[in-house]
């Protein structure tokens, strides 16, 4: 299928922007945040949700990966989160959401509209996680933060109206990477998860699939950008651990049911679809949907227009069914 007109308009608007890999991380981050703030200001009133609270959760450093290649750092601290709930009372099923941005950019504000839509349409609580960003905090900092939030929901969520027995994880792009890896850690720790939603996820640091060749340049996310994001995230870590590249995990069995959405014109398309296929081969109920004619990032940006809203409606339906 040819590029969707929505994608064509987005690419035209993005023309002339300096590529991510040619910028300093802190300057790129500031520019992206400014763009998000401008978009929010232009879109008018935000979608109303009964309960929206921003808070901090403890990070306690308890995760150990069984192959011994990595242990969660012993440093303690706090993780910023934002909770969205469609009603004031609970207990409510809960979705932990990790924003995209190549582990370098992204914020609670960037994911705000997506989280509001999913909370309203799925009838669930959404906990958006403001994980620490690279390169200032490289791998596994972002993963530690998302998993700390998951541990908190399981241990303390009931006190704030969340149902620890009906929990899902989701994320877009690099956030999809974190969500996928979180399911592997939850399986190891016997933490109950009912579903995972991976939106054009990053699953393999090798960047060598046919879609990387076909869409290396000119379709929003480029191969050079993605290689740069990996460098910022991994720092000195070069091991092909499944904690960085979930597609490299030797065993994907006994993971929660999955919805994986990819984009036709996206360097990440093939690795996302390969991950969905491996889940299916491992006996996991996994639904794969390719967004024909679309480019990377459309579900987290206003320029996605009706295609974004249609896809989010399908995500909400999947979550309603999974967390019923």
Describe what you observe in this structure.
The chain has 324 residues and is α/β, with parallel strands linked by helices. It has a single domain (5-322), classed as Rossmann fold, CATH 3.40.50. 37% of the residues lie in helices and 20% in strands. Strands 1-2-4-3-5-6-7-8 form an 8-stranded mixed sheet, with helices on both faces.
Q: Which overall shape is indicated by the principal axes computed on the Cα atoms?
A: globular
Supply the CATH superfamily name.
Answer: Alpha/Beta hydrolase fold, catalytic domain
As for the number of domains, it is 1
Structural class assignment: alpha/beta
How can the largest sheet be summarized?
8 strands, mixed
CATH topology: Rossmann fold
Helix content: 25-40%
Short description:
The chain is an alpha/beta fold. Helix content is 37%, strand content 20%.
Which descriptors would you attach to this protein?
alpha/beta; globular; Rossmann fold; 8 strands
Write the layout of secondary structure elements.
Elements lengths: L4 H10 L10 H18 L8 E9 L17 E9 L6 E7 L13 H11 L2 E6 L10 H16 L5 E11 L1 H16 L5 E5 L10 H5 L8 H12 L22 E9 L3 H13 L4 E10 L9 H18 L2
Helix pairs in contact: 3-9, 4-5
